[in-house]
Amino acid sequence: MLDWHRSGDFAPLVLVMRGRERHRLIRSLREVAEALVAVWPTDDGKEYIAAVRTCLDAIQGKIPAKAARAALLRAAEEARIPVIAVVH
Questions:
Q1: What pTM does this model have?
Q2: What is the rounded average pLDDT for all residues in the chain?
Q3: CA-to-CA distance for 87 and 37, rounded, in angstroms?
Q4: In this predicted structure, what is the pLDDT of residue 43?
Q5: Buried b vs exposed e over 63-82: b needs ≥16 C-beta within 10 Å?
Q6: Which DSSP helix (H) or strand (E) runs through 84?
Q7: pLDDT tens across 43-85, in order?
Q8: Quick check: 1 pLDDT over 50?
Q9: What strands, in cross-sheet order, belong to the sheet with 83-85?
Q10: Residue 20 region, left (φ>0) first, then alpha (ψ -120 to 50), else beta?
Q11: Which end of the chain is more exposed for a tag (fewer CB within 10 A), N or C?
């Protein structure tokens, strides 16, 4: 199983959410999973479901972390959540 807390293979991004935690920094698979499960505005949608599955596959080491990041971006577009790329 992959170290899903590690951020080395993951290009950071910020989700611009509604609510108390408006800007959510995503730097790792763990943070992708937390965003999808804990703060996502809806629990349906084709891209959302695909992002959850892709994140789980990446956590298990079956696919690279960047695939989960790409799935998160598609789910954000589907949910109309603005995304800011972080440059470091």
A1: 0.87
A2: 87
A3: 26
A4: 83
A5: bebeebbebbbbbbeebebe
A6: strand 83-85
A7: 889 999 999 999 999 999 899 999 999 999 999 999 999 999 8
A8: no
A9: 23-26, 13-16, 83-85
A10: alpha
A11: C
The two structure tokens encoding residue 23: 């800007």
Transcribe 7-71 into DSSP letters: -TT---EEEE-SSSS-EEEE-SHHHHHHIIIII-S-S--HHHHHHHHHHHHHHTTSS-HHHHHHH
The single residue listed with the structure tokens 């991004």 is: 13
The mean pLDDT of 11-34, rounded to a whole number, is 89
What's the CA gap between 23 and 83, in Å, rounded? 9
Confidence at residue 88, expressed as pLDDT on a 0 to 100 scale? 61
**H helix or E strand, kind and range, residue 75:** helix 65-78
